[in-house]
Design a protein that fits this description.
The complex is a heterodimer of chains A (about 350) and B (about 800). Chain A is of the alpha+beta class and about 350 residues long. Helix content of chain A is about 40%, strand content about 20%. Chain A has a 7-stranded mixed beta sheet with strand order 1-5-6-10-9-8-7, with helices on both faces. Chain A has a 3-stranded antiparallel beta sheet with strand order 2-4-3. With about 800 residues, chain B is an alpha+beta fold. Helices cover about 25% and strands about 30% of the residues of chain B. The chains are: A alpha+beta (about 350), B alpha+beta (about 800). Chains A and B meet through α5, β1, β2, β3 and β5 of A and α9, α12, α14, α15 and β29 of B.
Chain lengths: ~350, ~800
């Protein structure tokens, strides 16, 4: 092989590597001057072509042309790479610009609260059940041990559906679902029953014509008031923080006996007494009790065999306490400025 | 109910027990004390003053300078009231006293009295109006007392208010506590004090009782007792009686009526006084009304419609009272009444409740009878009231009482099993402890065996009928707080009930997609509920016409929410709701013929995204709504839906029906302007309602893995020129059809009319993805597909293939 062809190949290798390392316009110019200018190394090789034997000329000429073409291509691409780099550097965006806004949606505070309550109870083995909002007198009252013509019915102002029988109501509590669940299932039962309820009360900051409840029911052998207390105080701690105190005091519901009202130590003043707890240091959060034997008779459970506890709380009430909301009507106005706060 | 401490003190020894302690112990016994007010505390620093002199203030025409004797000291006080004058006895607040209400404060808040210079003259106190003291509404001038009011006496004492009044909220079972005696019993138990048993003092004189009572309807009247007092003088009640009633929230009427009310508040037995001489043949007949008796005028002057099953108190000729509810005008005690018959009866609670409900008339008497009154207290109450009438209205108590009873009223006997107590409460109480607990609330018990107590329940506890009621009493008196918390440790293996909620998952998904969740009222005006369907559910007793029907759609609630936010200047909204809608069904449902569905609604209006520095603003349109719906459907792993246009011009301007496997599962559309106008919405609004339950019922298959494609897909662009009115949806289906088993995906990447496209035509460009499970598609496969698509669309829509490209 003639020595010149070696030089060509060597130069090609050397220059290609050098082109790849070019990093600035100055370096590119130096490269051009060194290899591609009229006095450059490539030109010098062309110069020597006239001295080679005639029979080698076509071969070497072709190689030299290829070399020049290849180095020009390398040079051009290096040049545009360098230009591109500097262009990028010039166009660095203003990173202080915010991201492009998108709407952020929220679940309603009531459904958030309900979800939280469901999470706590499903975590300790409660299932979820559901029932109708338009309910018959039997499930809403009678089977819950509200006899006809009993003053306990005055505890709940009832909406009636226009119907000749007068037997259908908008449920006043979710307790009727207890009856439906027990009618369709044998004990043991451990369920919570969330849902919408209605009361025919004047609308104010503290009362609305509809509201939401979560009902709970646990029926098994030897279920006791002590377990009810344990369950509810666990729930209160999960929801309001592990420091929160609970207090059970005697109350009355036709479908539980004994019955209790549950208070938590005021979460606003720590129990010292403030405007929100009416200076009592306690806030009422739910009603509960041991399932009345009469209720078991309606669903054909044997009260000698099983016992159970039930509880019911207003989701609005819990949400109002949790988020310090002072007007129940805000939940149903759906002001986005309100909804976005949760 | 209002309970006075002074009154309680006559019934039980409260010595050394602070108000606070009484309130908290009662509350923990289930007798909830909502609040209490100590008037001596409230009126500390207020005394009865004697205005010695009153003269014009030198610097102010409307002010007076008064010299007021406050008992041993004389104060200069500036007073602005027009009615102040020398010689008056007035309420005076001294420096440091808290005036309950400020007349000049819009909220009427109180303030502390300080020594103040008023127009240059020092004032050392304040003469008060009834309003300022919280004793009435009168702001026009100061209160002026009787001339004999003792100068310097503390105001609370002078007003008979040196007392604490407890406001008690009773549950319906505790009718025994609808009296001072009942509350005193609870306190006696809580603090281990003895009830003071005082025998009423009075004298029986004259002839034996001559009046007669016949109880014809004994089923509704288990007991009727009566006494007669003759020769009384009806007049004002003495101060102590008036004060006692007023503290309990009752108005004073006259000495006889007040005496009956006093005894009711003290013992819980409602009483009624008849003018004996207005009773025909001086006879009381307790019966149901005769067929011709259909109306009766009660004491309040109102004519009441009476029904055949209501119980009436009558004389030999006429009705004189509605039993247990209200007396009549025809036998009312008046100034001229000389002889009275006092009724002390026990009526059937359900009957009284039905009557009161039907008459829409609830009285102190009916309230107590409905809840149950001790049947064994009628005679005690008569003796007590006779004593008071004798003292306050004079007259002679006739010898003897009338007492007609259906049966003896003995204590109920109930067996209590110790193990049942402990099973239900989770306690380990011994029978001796249980016995002691019950003893403290006057339930006596004897041991029947080691584990069974036979309990005697006193007649005043009408609520205790069963063993479980006794268990509640044990728990209540033992103290709920002493029952230790137990925690369940058993695991639950129950697959019958759901543990998760699909709707909650969709809620989170939509919130993530930028939707705010709303919760709207299910009660609506009839004209709104009937907008979508005539088969709405009406409410029989609505709060107002605005809430007289159950909603049939989530749309009106959504429009109200949008309207409210628009009024606050918020114009761009993405909202959703998951709630129920209600309808009258053609068939029998779980409850009556009322059906309940649980749809999810979506609302979009305004700009598709908030304003941003380099974003083209885009107004929401129906296709954005379709996007959101399709995203929900894909989230639910569905792929076989269709949108079909349909006309529902009553509500929508443009609308689509969503179908899944041929089943209607939702609607979507641009809400019509007419409807929007009703909600003052003047921008386009897109609404969809999806029946989630039906949608999820379609895909009950569990998620299952399909192996990933082994061979590369071919991606082909096809653009057709076609008449403008050809629906792209149909063309899409045709292209899918041609692709057959090779079909993997299709998108429309360009729609164009204008330059280069003939008038009346459009260019539609599809990107089709084809694939095969068992080989790489070759050029022939693709060419064949393109050919077929060209032929098919040419035939079906006269479309011509404009351009093709194998990507």
């Amino acid at each position: 092989m003639p020595p010149m062809i070696d030089e060509i190949l060597k130069l090609k290798e050397e220059a290609t590597v050098a082109a790849g390392r070019l990093n600035s316009a100055d370096e590119a110019e130096t490269f051009r001057l060194k290899y591609l200018s009229r006095k450059g190394l490539v030109a010098q090789l062309f110069e020597r072509l006239k001295d080679v034997p005639k029979e080698e000329k076509p071969q070497l000429g072709k190689s030299l042309n290829e070399l020049r073409k290849s180095l020009e291509t390398e040079f051009e691409s290096a040049k545009s790479r360098i230009e591109g780099q500097s262009k990028v550097r010039e166009e660095v965006p203003d990173l202080s610009l915010p991201g492009r806004k998108r709407y952020v949606g929220k679940m309603h505070p009531l459904t958030q609260t309900a979800a939280e309550i469901k999470r706590i109870f499903t975590g300790i083995g409660f299932g979820i059940a559901d029932g109708p909002e338009i309910e018959d007198d039997y499930h809403n009252f009678e089977a819950l041990n509200f006899p006809p013509d009993h003053p306990a019915r005055d505890m709940q102002d009832t909406f009636f559906v226009s119907d000749d029988s007068g037997k259908f109501v908008l449920r006043t509590h979710t307790s009727g679902v207890q009856i439906r669940v027990m009618e369709n299932n044998k004990p043991p039962i451990r369920v919570i029953m969330p849902g919408r309820c209605y009361r025919n009360e004047a609308i104010s900051a503290r009362a609305y014509c509809m509201f939401h409840q979560v009902e709970g029911l646990y029926v098994d052998k030897n279920v006791s008031l002590a377990e009810l207390k344990g369950t509810i105080s666990y729930f209160a701690k999960e929801l309001f923080g592990s420091e929160v105190k609970t207090r059970f005091r005697p109350s009355f519901f036709p479908f539980t006996e004994p019955s209790a009202e549950v208070d938590i130590g005021c979460i606003f003043c720590g129990g010292k007494g403030c405007r929100l707890c009416k200076y009592a240091g306690w806030l009422e959060i739910m009603g509960c009790g041991m399932v009345d034997p009469n209720v078991f008779k309606f669903v054909r459970y044997d009260p000698a065999e099983v016992s159970g506890f039930a509880f019911g709380m207003g989701i609005e009430r819990i949400a109002m306490l949790k988020y310090s909301i002072d007007d129940i009507r805000l939940f149903f106005e759906n002001d986005i400025r309100f909804l976005n706060q949760f | 109910m209002k309970i006075s401490r002074k009154w309680l003190e006559q019934l039980v020894d409260l010595n050394g027990i602070p108000d606070q302690e009484i309130a908290s112990r009662l509350t923990m016994l289930g007798i909830e004390v909502e609040s209490y007010e100590n008037f001596s505390e409230k009126y500390k620093g207020f005394v009865v003053g004697h205005v010695l002199e009153s003269s014009r203030h030198p610097n102010a025409d409307r002010l007076h300078l008064c010299r007021v004797d406050i008992g041993g000291d004389v104060k200069d006080i500036v007073c602005g009231a027009p009615n102040v004058g020398a010689g008056q006895k007035v309420p005076v607040g001294l420096v440091g006293a808290l005036v309950p209400h400020n007349q000049h404060d819009p909220d009427g808040n109180g303030f502390e009295l300080t020594r103040a210079k008023i127009r240059g003259i020092e004032s050392n106190g304040m003469i008060c109006s009834a309003f300022e003291l919280g004793l009435g509404d009168d702001k026009s001038g100061i209160m002026v007392f009787d001339n004999d009011a003792p100068t310097g006496e503390p105001l609370a004492k002078y007003l008979g208010l040196d007392d604490t009044v407890f406001e008690i909220s009773l549950t319906p079972n505790r009718s025994d506590c609808l009296s001072h005696l009942g509350v005193a019993r609870e306190i006696a138990s809580a603090f281990s004090r003895k009830l003071s048993a005082k025998r009423p003092r009075f004298h029986e004189t004259g002839d034996p009782i001559a009046a007669k009572v016949e109880v014809a309807a004994q089923d509704l009247c288990p007991r009727y007792s009566a006494r007669v007092v003759k020769g009384i003088k009806v007049g004002h009640s003495p101060r102590w009686l008036k004060d006692a009633l007023e503290k309990a929230g009752m108005r004073s009427i006259n000495n006889v009526v007040d005496a009956t009310n006093y005894v009711m508040l003290e013992l819980g037995q409602p009483l009624h006084a008849f003018d004996l001489n207005l009773l025909s043949k001086q006879t009381i007949v307790v019966r149901r009304p005769n067929p011709n008796e259909t109306t009766f005028t009660t004491l309040d002057g109102k004519e009441r419609r009476i029904a055949p099953d209501m119980l009436m108190i009558c004389d030999k000729e006429k009705i004189v009272a509605i039993a247990g509810v209200m007396g009549g005008m025809n036998s009312e005690i008046s100034d001229g009444t000389v002889d009275v018959l006092i009724e002390s009866a026990n009526f059937l609670s359900t009957s009284i409740r039905r009557t009161a409900k039907r008459l829409g008339l609830s009285t102190e008497a009916s309230y107590r009878f409905e809840r149950g009154v001790d049947p064994d207290i009628t005679l005690t109450a008569l003796d007590r009231v006779a004593g008071i009438i004798e003292e306050t209205a004079g007259g002679q108590v006739t010898k003897g009482t009338i007492d007609i009873t259906a049966s003896k009223f003995a204590a109920k006997r109930i067996d209590l099993h110790v193990d049942q107590v402990n099973r239900l409460l989770g306690t380990r109480l011994a029978s001796g402890e249980i016995k002691r607990i019950l003893d403290s609330i006057e339930i006596r018990s004897e041991k029947k065996s080691e584990t069974v107590l036979v309990c005697s329940v006193p007649t005043f506890r009408v609520d205790i009928e069963r063993e479980v009621d006794l268990i509640e009493e044990v728990a209540r008196v033992y103290g709920y707080e002493k029952i230790e918390e137990a925690r369940q440790t058993k695991l639950v293996f129950d697959t019958r009930f759901d543990k998760s909620d699909l709707v909650d998952e969709i809620r989170l998904f939509l919130a993530g997609a930028g939707f705010n969740e709303i919760v709207t009222n299910s009660l609506q005006p009839v004209h709104v509920a009937s907008e979508e369907s005539g088969r709405y559910v009406p409410v029989a007793n609505p709060i107002s016409e605005d809430m007289a029907a159950m909603r049939t759609s989530l749309l009106p609630g959504a429009l109200s929410a949008v309207s409210l936010n628009l009024s606050h200047g918020i114009k761009d909204m993405k909202l959703f709701e998951a709630g129920r809608v209600y309808a009258l069904s053609e068939k029998k449902e779980l409850v009556g013929n009322y059906s309940e569905r649980s749809p999810i609604s979506l609302v979009i209006t305004g700009f598709a995204d908030p304003v941003s520095y380099d974003r083209q603003l885009h107004q929401y349109d129906l296709f954005d709504l379709k996007t959101e719906i399709e995203r929900v459907l894909k989230r639910l792993q569905l792929d076989n839906w269709d949108f079909i246009s349909y006309d529902s011009s009553r509500i929508y301007n443009q609308s689509l029906k969503l179908t899944l496997n041929g089943m209607d599962v939702g609607v979507a559309g641009r809400v019509g302007d007419k409807l929007l106008e009703k909600f003052s919405i003047s921008q386009h609004l897109f609404f969809a309602e999806l029946d989630l339950l039906q949608i999820t019922s379609v895909n009950t298959q569990t998620k299952k893995f399909r192996s990933l494609p082994k061979f590369p897909f071919a991606s082909i662009d096809l653009s057709f020129i076609v008449d403008s009115n050809v629906p792209v949806g149909n063309m899409t289906s045709s292209v899918k059809g041609v692709a057959g088993k090779m079909f993997r995906d299709i998108s429309i990447f360009d729609l164009y009319t204008g330059k280069g496209i003939p008038e009346g035509q459009k260019s539609v460009a599809f990107n089709v993805v084809l694939g095969s499970d068992d080989r790489t598609l070759n050029d022939e496969d693709v060419a064949e597909f393109i050919n077929e698509a060209e032929t098919q669309l040419g035939r079906e829509y006269s479309a011509t293939l404009r351009r093709q490209k194998n990507r």
